[in-house]
Amino acid sequence: MGKCLDFKSCGFDNRDEARFCSHCGIPTKGTLLQGRYAIEALQQKDRGTVTFQATDQQTYLPVTIRALIPKDTNTQEQENFLQDAELAVSLSTHVSDPGSIRVVDYGQDGPVVFMVKTAPAPVQQPPSTLSRLVNRISGDFFPQMPLAGSSISDEETTQVRIAVPTGTMPPPTPVRQTPEPVVHDWLTEGNLAYEHGAYEQALAAYEMATRQNSTLVEAWSGKGATLLHLGQAQEALQAYDHAISLSPHDPELWTSRASVLHDLQSYDEEMYCYDQALTFDPDYVYAWSGRGMALAEQGYPEEALVAFDRALLLDPQRSTIWQAMGDTLYSLQRYDEALIAIDRAFALDDSQASLWDTKGNILRRLKQPEQALALHERATLIEPDNATSWFDKANDLRDLRRYRDALADYDQALALDPTLAGAWYNRGNVLAALRMFEQALDSYDHALQYDDGLISAWYNKGSLLHELKRHQEALAAFDRALALDVHYIAAWNNRGLSLFALGRLDEALAALDQATSFAPEEPDAWYNKAVVLEKLGRKQEAVTCQDWARSLDQQAKDAQGL
C-alpha cells in the first residue's frame, strides 16, 4: 500500500495503511476488496474507470478487477455500474467456452464499485487450502474427536487410575485428548472492519480481542483509533493509556495519544506526548510533523518551523509537511520562503487543491494578482465545492478591480458556506466600491453575525453609515471597533467626524485628540482637529493644527520624491 497505483494521473503519497487513495479513491496495492480480491497492479485507465490485475484469495485464480474512479463518478453512475455488473454476472453463468472471459462477481467496498472478470483456466490449489478450510469448520462447529476405527497407542492415551480401598481394581478408563479449539482472531476482524470504515463493528471486535488477551497492545491501539473516529475522545484516551502501559516505549502510541489530546484541546499534555515519542525515537517523523502542526496552531510558528525542518531532514518526500511549512511561513509574512516551500510540495504532489490555493495566496501577497488568479481558478476546478478557493479567487478579482466578477465568486463561496465571515466582509467592501451602500451594510451585518470580533467590519460599517448621514448608528459602530482595539486610529478619527456632524463638538475634539496622540504623524486627524477648533472659536489653535498638517503632508511628499 502507500503510493497511488495511478502513477501518471494521481501518484498521491498515501499513508502505508491506506486501503484507498486519499485523492482519487482507487484501491492501493495490496488492498483486499471485500476481504477476497487482492489488488496487485494497475493494468489500464479509461475515462472514469480503472482495470487492475488481482488474485482471488479463495480460489487462488488470477482475476481482473474493473472499477469506477470515485472522484470522477457520481452516485447515479455507480448505481448504473452495479446494475450492469449484476446483469453481466447473470449472463456469464451461460458461458462455458474454454478461454472465454466471464464476469464472476461484483460489489462495493469503501468508495469503490467494481466487477470481477476471470478466464476459466484452472490453477492448482495450494496443498494447504483444504486442510485450512477443514480445520476452520471443525474447530468452529464440531469437537475434534478421533475418527471411528482409529487406533490410539498407549503413549497417546491419558489414563486416570482411581484408588479403591477394597474390592477389585476396575480397568483404567481411557480419556481421549481433545485438541485445543481454534481461537477466533478478533484482532484481524477488528482491523478489517476498521479499514472498511465499519467502526461500530471494529470496536466490538477490538473489545473481544482485549477480553481474549488483555495484553494485546495492537487491540488496545485499534480500539483507541476507532473510538476517536466515533467521536469518543475521552474513551479513546483511556484505550491509548492502557496500550502505553503495556508498551511504554512505543513512539507511535505516544503520537496517537497526542492526536486524541489535540481533539480534547489538552495542548500542554499533547506536547508532552510528542516529547515522549521523540525521547524513545528521535527520528520518528510523524512525531516531528505532528509537533510542528500543533505548535503552529497554538501560535508558535517559529518553533513549528524547527519541528518541520527536522521532519523534512528525516523524510524530504512528505508533501504535507512542505505544505505545512509553507502555510506557517505565510502566516509570518515570509512570502518568498513560503513560495519555496510550496513549490517543493508541488514537485511531490500537484493534485491537491489546497496547494494551488496557498500558492495563489502567496502570489497575491507578493502583488501578483494575475498569477494568483490562475492558480485559484485551478483550485476551484480541482475542488469545485471548496468555499475557501472561491473566496480566495474573488479576492484576486477584487485586487484587479474586477468588482462584478469578484461579487459573483463571493456569492459562490457563500452558497457553499454561508458562515464564511471573511467572504461576507469582502463582499461588503466590493459592494461599497460599487457604491451599493445598503447592500454593503447588509453584507457587513452578516459578517458580524458570524464573527462579531471583526474590527474592520465594524469600522467599515461605521464609515458607510457616516456616508449615508446616519451618524448616530455610525457612532455606535465606531465604538464597537474601538472596544476591540483602543488604538484604532482611523476609528477615532471617524468617530470625531460623526460627533462633529451631530454637533457634539467637545466630544469630537476629544476623539480627534486621541487620534493625534496615537498617530501624531497622521495629517488627516490634524486637519479635522483644526476644523473642530475653528468651529469652537479657538482660531489660533486651529491655525497651528492646520500648519502642522500641511507640514506632515509636505514631509510625506518629500519622502516619496514628489
Strand order in the sheet with the most strands = 1-2-3-4-6-5
CATH class of the domain at 2-117: Alpha Beta
CATH topology of the domain at 2-117: Phosphorylase Kinase, domain 1
Strands, total number: 8
Mean pLDDT: 85
Number of helices: 24
| Share of helix, binned | 55-70%
Strand content: 5-15%
**Class based on secondary structure composition and strand pairing:** alpha+beta
**Rg (C-alpha, Å):** 36 Å
> What can be said about the biggest beta sheet?
6 strands, antiparallel
Overall geometry comes to elongated
Distance between the termini: 65 Å
The stretches of 5 or more residues where confidence is low (pLDDT under 50) are: 120-169
Under the CATH scheme, which architecture of the domain at 2-117 would be assigned? 2-Layer Sandwich
Q: Let me know the CATH homologous superfamily of the domain at 2-117.
A: Phosphorylase Kinase, domain 1
Topology, please?
Layout: E1 32-33, E2 37-46, E3 49-56, E4 62-68, H1 75-92, E5 102-109, E6 112-118, H2 128-141, E7 158-160, E8 173-175, H3 186-195, H4 199-212, H5 217-229, H6 233-246, H7 251-263, H8 267-280, H9 285-297, H10 301-314, H11 319-331, H12 335-348, H13 353-365, H14 369-382, H15 387-399, H16 403-416, H17 421-433, H18 437-450, H19 455-467, H20 471-484, H21 489-501, H22 505-518, H23 523-535, H24 539-559
Antiparallel strand pairs: 1-2, 2-3, 3-4, 4-6, 5-6, 7-8
Helix pairs in contact: 3-4, 3-5, 4-5, 5-6, 6-7, 7-8, 7-9, 8-9, 9-10, 10-11, 11-12, 12-13, 13-14, 13-15, 14-15, 15-16, 16-17, 17-18, 18-19, 19-20, 19-21, 20-21, 21-22, 21-23, 22-23, 23-24
TPR repeats: 217-250, 251-284, 285-318, 319-352, 353-386, 387-420, 421-454, 455-488, 489-522
Keywords: Repeat, TPR repeat
